[in-house]
């Protein structure tokens, strides 16, 4: 390892490529271990490829997550405190749903609000 001072006083470090790549590998492994720990602790989950594909294809995120969670539209509407027709309009793209309603839906579906947009 070698250090260099730049004209503005910043210290730079020069590493052999193998040492640099080892540091990157260690950082990647640490990040993967954090993700595994979050999944094991229930703070995160693996999302099946089918769900990702449906979301990326433009299908209603509320509908996709609802079906993934095994909820009927009637059950989701009841748990979110909204009418089934209103949920149907949200899933069908006819209405966007107010922020408070979307927060309730996200809570019931156990997803972040961002996952429904």
Characterise the protein shown here:
With 117 residues, this protein is mostly helical. The chain folds into two domains: 39 residues, no CATH class; 58 residues, 434 Repressor (Amino-terminal Domain) (Orthogonal Bundle), CATH 1.10.260. Helix content is 57%, strand content 7%. Strands 1-2 form a two-stranded antiparallel sheet. A hairpin with a 5-residue loop joins strand 1 and strand 2. Helix 4 packs across helix 5 and helix 4 packs across helix 6. The chain is elongated. It starts with a strand and ends in an 8-residue tail after the last helix. The mean pLDDT is 95.
Portion of residues in beta strands equals 5-15%
CATH architecture of the largest domain: Orthogonal Bundle
Q: Unreliable stretches, pLDDT < 50, 5 or more residues?
A: none
Write down the secondary-structure element order. EEHHHHHH
The number of helical runs is: 6
Q: Mean of residue pLDDT?
A: 95
Assembly state of the chains shown: single chain
Taking the sheet with the most strands, its summary is: 2 strands, antiparallel
CATH top level assignment of the largest domain: Mainly Alpha
* Span between termini: 47 Å
Tally the structural domains: 2
Quantity of strands, as a count: 2
Radius of gyration: 23 Å
Shape: elongated
In spatial order, strands of the major sheet run 1-2
CATH superfamily of the largest domain: lambda repressor-like DNA-binding domains
CATH fold assignment of the largest domain: 434 Repressor (Amino-terminal Domain)
Helix-strand category: mainly alpha
Helix content: 55-70%
């Amino acid at each position: 390892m070698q250090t260099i001072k730049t004209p503005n006083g910043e210290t730079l470090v020069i590493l052999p490529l193998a040492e640099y790549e080892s540091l990157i590998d260690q950082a990647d492994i640490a990040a993967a271990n954090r993700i595994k720990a979050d999944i094991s602790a229930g703070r995160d989950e693996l999302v099946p490829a089918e769900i990702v594909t449906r979301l990326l294809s433009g299908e209603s995120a509320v509908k996709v997550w609802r079906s993934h969670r095994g909820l009927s539209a009637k059950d989701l509407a009841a748990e979110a405190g909204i009418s089934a027709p209103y949920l149907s309009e949200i899933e069908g793209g006819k209405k966007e749903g107010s922020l408070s309603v979307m927060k309730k839906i996200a809570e019931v579906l156990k997803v972040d609000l961002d996952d429904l947009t």
